[in-house]
What does this fold into?
Amino acid sequence: MGTERCLAETVPVRRYRIEIAGPVPEAIREEFPDMVVNVTGNVTALIADIPDTCALYGIIARLEALGIALLSAQPDR
It folds into this structure.
């Protein structure tokens, strides 16, 4: 354990918008210092350039571990 390797497809760096339910406490924002945080109503968008699919999956896994409800994750336009 601890040596798992992401075998997801590598993609070019893309800007992603990850939407989560509700506002995000400051402590959780500190987990993702390079992300822009936009709050609209009961949805918080985390926006950042993500280098590959493995990094995206890692962010999603971290949000899940923190008990945060993921609404969507998609390239930002």
